[in-house]
Structure formats: C-alpha cells, structure tokens
C-alpha cells in the first residue's frame, strides 16, 4: 500500500477468527464506508446529500447542504476505517479530503459560488426568511466547525498533523463571532441558506435571536453547538486558549433560558395543529434543558456544552446536559433506543441516534450517571435497524411504489438514478417510526451522525489500559489485550479471550440478575469481585478464556407514542434481553411504509451461529471524539 493511501487507511493487522454471528459493529462500519463513498458525486467532488426510495425509480439528489455537510462524512470515514481496516475506494477518499482542504482560506471553510450548483442558496423554506441569496461565497459556521472535527479525526486516526489548520479555523470562527457582554453568537439573519452563513462580504445582519425557533431549520442553538464542540475538542487536545474562550462564550449563549423549555400543545388554529406554550407552574424546563421539538437540533448544542463542561470543568454546564438527557429519554421508547425527535409527528431522526450514544457515553464518563444500558438499547435496536443493509428488500419496496415526481428546474446533474439502492447500502434512513420508515428517504447528515454512533459505541465497548481490560458493552470486539465474543441475544454468554495478562472487568447489564451470573475458565467456576454493575477478575494469564453466563429471558412490553393526539400509535415490543426481536404497531402498515425489525425471528434461537472473519486491529487509538 503506497504512502498516499496509508494516510487514509489506518495501519494495523488482520487476523482470522471464528466468532458468534451476532451484532458486529466493525462489519457495520465496513458497510458504512461503502455507502458513504458510493454516495459521492466525483464530478463535483461532493455528496449527493439526499436519497429517495418512495418511488418506483429511486434516485440520489444533490442538496444545498452538501458542501457544509461534506466534513461530516469526512470525519466519519476514518473512524469507520479504524474499526474495520477496509481499503474500499481509498483513493477517492484521499481526493475527497484534498478537495475539502482546498475549500479553506482566510480561516474559514467556504461554500464557493459556482454555476454548476445553482441549488446552493436555498435551504428548506429559506426564501421566506432571506430571499434568493447572492452569487457569492459563504461559510456555514457549523460547516466550519465540522471541518475542524474532520481534521481532528484525520490526525487521531491517521497521524496527519492538522493542528495548525484546525487552530486557524477556530480563529476564523472567533473573528466572525458577534460578541455581547460575556457571550458570543452567530446570527441567523447574517446571510441566506440556513441563515447562519457568513458571506464573503461580511454579515448582513448581526441582531441577536429572541428565541430558539428562528430560521429555516427552526433552531438558533443548533447553529452554535458544533462550534462549541469543535473548539472544546481542540482545547482538550492542545490547550489552545482561543478555542477555550470560544467554547465558553458560545456555551453561555446557548444556555440562556430564552432558548429552552416550553411544551407542545394541541391547537387546531395553528399551522400543523400545534403550538409551543410556556411550561406549566412548578416545571422550569428552561433551567434543565427541556426541548419541545426537533431533538437533533437541541442535541447539537447539548453535545457541545457537554464537551466544554468536561474539558473546562464547568459543573453547571454538566448538570444542565444531564437534566436535558434524562428528559430526552422520556420522549419515546427508551428500551428500544427510539426517541420521538419530531413530535407532533412520529419519527426518530438518524442524526439523533448518534447523538444519544455520544451523550450517554460522555455523561457516564463524566460521572453524571451510568447510561451504558441506554447505549446498548440504541445500538442493538434503532441504530442497527435504520442502517440500510438489505438491498433486495429495498428494491422490492421501490418496485411496488408509484412513480415519483422528479425535479426539472435544475440541470440533469442535480439527480441520478444510477444504482440508487445499491449505492445506498450502508447509509442510514433519515426518519423512522419505531417499526417502519414511512416514505423512506435518506439525509446524509444522518449517515454522518449515525455512523459516528457506531464508532462511539465500538470505542466505548472495550477500554484497555495498563494491564486492564474493561468491557462496557457485551458486543463482539477485537482488542489489544482481549477479544470479546458475544452470543447475545441468542444466549446469555460472553467469552473474553485474554491475549495479554491483565485484569478483566465486565459490566453486567441492568436486566441481568447478578446472582444468576457464573464466571468460568476451562470449565471451572471463578470467584469475581463486584463493583457496581461490574464483575472483575485479577491476573488472568494470556491464552485464558473467561466465560460469563447468565439466563436470558423474553418479555413483551407495550408502549404508546403521542398519547392523546390524533396520531397516537400503540406498539408491542418483544425483547430478548435488551434486543428487540419483534416490534409491532397496532395499526397496519401502509403501502408506503418500509418495515423494520423483520428477520429478527432468527435471533430467538438459543444457539448463536458462528462465522469466520478477518478481524482488524489498528495501531492507533482515538478516544478524543
């Protein structure tokens, strides 16, 4: 492999192994790499930001958000390769990185004007807010931040020194931020597109927002959160004082009470039949990060605030995010890992799945709670199901749909029908109900975020350091000190294969009765120390196989979504351990519903099938995501 490809594909080794054929996040990462690179348009060197499958002829479509979103895929790709080692289309990713870097000048990442992308100025209903925009370069402030995060991932995974370039972008963001008292912000009427774009000629309007639901995305805090995250991440890695200042000032802005709280209420006289009303007496949602609608738009600032809190030691910020997270997990079916991100409709945005995993892991690491069971629920269930893995099923679904209406106002390059389904295997559906995707489509912002959720869970599942291996999630995982083979959900059994002498600690899920757990090596029972939800064994020698077993039971649980509304839906979920093996809605599926959770009946067998795989072990580790 040439030097140029080594900068894309992480160094490491492959080795053959026979493992249970259960959820394998490394295999899912391999699919994600294929899907992300297959969705690129080499002629413009940007993504087709959308994919539509609610039509007999499915197609990929460009989006005005393609350029700002490109760094999201560029951050995900190295993380996925670190998990699985795939070389799939590495030259294309190398060229993609070069293209993104070429968009940087004057301390910002630019969406440059070109007549080849006449759709670039209009985002959602932005015409109502800002008009048609200008034929001028602009820098989406959150796109700049995602570029910093991509650069950080490249350095963490491949060793490419990107610190100076990241620092220049942080200084660019600091330069254009609008300062007021002890806080700073980016104005939603500063440009066009989604509003939070900085024109090459400077801000058009720097007025401060009065509430969160402003602009075509309907969230002011959303457009500040990525900058907080990127700045706090860079500060944690390098101690950059400008990054620390920017993260602190933006965090103070987005935590203002005017942006949080409020409750959805039915109101037929309002657009959409609902309104957001003030919190009832005794409920102060604003100080606890409560949100009434569009969770992903709130998860972005929450993740930024949390990153800042952990990097800078801000306890109040940590408390704010913990309270917001606990509230969030009441807004759906927690055990399924499904949150209703778009009430009063019913749907979980793919972006939000990555957010939930990230928030749960980082809050746990910060000592604000133990949320590993939440991570497990999201990853085994909704995250796994919203990834497109079955091309044949999706092709058959499309064949049964009416022919959709195509765009005619833009050039032919705006859309393509070329292998739309096959090119989308590995990406993530945009919005899904608990058991189906209605009018299935993809926003590749969701592919970027959801795939990163795979990485967060994979990285957190096994932590190894100084002769100790800590297993937080009972998932298949290759490691330096141990390998983990999981038989769940077929059987309550996990094998920890010791490769270097170490202490082994395994977290036992909340649904398992501790008294039922047995720990064996070579058929002999072993005494284990208990600390919280962990069982620990000292001084296990290389070559040892420590097996943890416990009963696994099935339970049927009933849930209601959007209770008391005209779109109320009831669900019955059959869980085997923490894995949903069946999700049934009381209402019959419609012709435009693509079903999820099908094919999981095979998970109810008591013997896990096995498969031979080439496991990958990278030389580098990247935990500062």
Structural class by secondary-structure content:
alpha+beta
Mean pLDDT: 96
* Total beta strands: 35
Largest sheet, if any? Answer: 5 strands, mixed
Can you tell me the overall shape?
Answer: globular
Q: Number of DSSP helices?
A: 16
Give the radius of gyration: 24 Å
**Poorly predicted runs of 5 or more residues:** none
Strand proportion, as a percent range, falls in: 15-25%
Distance between the termini: 27 Å
Biggest sheet, strands in spatial order? 21-22-25-29-28
User: Share of helix among residues?
Assistant: 25-40%
Describe the structure.
With 625 residues, this protein is an alpha+beta fold. It is built from 16 helices and 35 strands. The strands form 13 sheets. It has a 5-stranded mixed sheet with strand order 21-22-25-29-28. Strands 23-24-30-26-27 form a 5-stranded antiparallel sheet, with no helix packed on it. Strands 17-5-4-20 form a 4-stranded antiparallel sheet. A hairpin with a 2-residue loop joins strand 26 and strand 27 (524-525). The longest helix is centred in the N-terminal third of the chain and has 19 residues, at 66-84. It is globular and about 75 Å long.
């Amino acid at each position: 492999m040439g030097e140029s490809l080594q900068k894309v594909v992480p160094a490491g080794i492959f080795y053959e192994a026979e493992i249970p054929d259960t959820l394998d996040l490394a295999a899912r990462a391999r699919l994600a790499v294929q899907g992300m690179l297959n969705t690129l348009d080499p002629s413009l060197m940007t993504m087709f930001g959308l994919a539509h499958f609610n039509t007999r002829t499915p197609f990929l479509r460009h989006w005005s958000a393609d350029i700002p979103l490109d760094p999201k895929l560029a951050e995900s790709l190295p993380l996925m390769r670190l998990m699985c080692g795939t070389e799939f289309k590495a030259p294309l990713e190398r060229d993609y990185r070069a293209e993104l870097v070429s968009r940087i000048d004057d301390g910002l990442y630019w969406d440059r004007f070109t007549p080849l992308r006449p759709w670039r100025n209009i985002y959602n209903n932005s015409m109502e807010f800002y008009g048609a925009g200008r034929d001028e370069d602009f820098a989406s402030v959150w796109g700049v931040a995602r570029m910093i995060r991509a650069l950080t991932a490249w350095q963490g995974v491949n060793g490419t020194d990107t610190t100076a370039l990241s620092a220049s972008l942080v200084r660019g963001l600091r330069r254009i931020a609008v300062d007021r008292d002890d806080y700073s912000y980016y104005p939603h009427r500063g440009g066009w597109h989604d509003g939070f774009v900085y024109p090459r000629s400077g801000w058009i309007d720097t007025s401060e927002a009065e509430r969160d639901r402003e602009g075509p995305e309907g969230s002011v805090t959303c457009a500040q959160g990525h900058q907080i995250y990127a700045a706090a991440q860079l500060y944690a890695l390098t101690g950059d004082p400008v990054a620390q200042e920017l993260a602190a000032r933006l965090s103070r802005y987005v935590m203002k009470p005017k942006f949080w709280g409020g409750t959805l209420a039915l109101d037929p006289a309002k657009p959409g039949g609902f309104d957001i009303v003030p919190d009832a007496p005794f409920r102060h949602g604003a100080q606890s990060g409560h949100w009434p609608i569009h969770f992903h738009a709130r998860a972005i600032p929450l993740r930024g605030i949390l990153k800042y809190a952990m990097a800078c030691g801000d306890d109040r910020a940590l408390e704010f995010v913990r309270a917001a997270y606990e509230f969030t997990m009441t807004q759906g079916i927690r055990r399924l890992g499904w949150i209703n991100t778009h009430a009063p409709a019913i749907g979980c945005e793919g972006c939000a799945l990555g957010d939930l995993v990230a928030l749960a892991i980082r809050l746990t690491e910060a000592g604000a709670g133990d949320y590993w069971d939440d991570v497990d629920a999201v990853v085994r269930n909704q995250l796994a199901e919203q990834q497109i893995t079955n091309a044949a099923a999706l092709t058959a679904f499309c064949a049964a749909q009416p022919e959709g209406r195509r765009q005619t106002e833009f050039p032919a390059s705006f859309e393509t029908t070329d292998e739309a389904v096959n090119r989308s295997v590995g990406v993530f559906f945009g919005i899904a109900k608990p058991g189906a995707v209605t009018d299935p489509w993809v926003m590749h912002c969701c592919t970027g975020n959801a795939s990163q959720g795979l990485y967060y869970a994979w990285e957190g599942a096994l932590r190894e350091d100084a002769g100790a291996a800590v297993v937080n999630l009972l998932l298949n995982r290759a490691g330096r000190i141990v390998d983990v083979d999981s038989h769940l959900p077929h059987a309550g059994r996990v094998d920890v294969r010791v490769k270097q002498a170490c202490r082994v600690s395994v977290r036992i899920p909340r649904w398992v009765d501790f008294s039922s757990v047995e720990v064996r090596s070579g058929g002999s029972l072993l005494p284990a120390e208990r600390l919280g939800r962990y069982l620990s064994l000292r001084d296990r020698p290389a070559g040892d196989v420590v097996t943890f077993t416990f009963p696994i039971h099935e339970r049927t649980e009933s849930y209601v979504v959007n209770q008391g509304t005209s779109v109320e839906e009831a669900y019955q979920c059959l869980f085997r351990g923490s894995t949903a093996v069946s999700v049934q809605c009381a209402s019959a599926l419609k012709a435009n519903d693509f079903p999820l959770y099908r094919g999981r009946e095979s998970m109810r067998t008591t013997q896990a099938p096995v498969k031979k795989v080439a496991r990958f072990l990278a030389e580098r580790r990247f935990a500062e995501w």
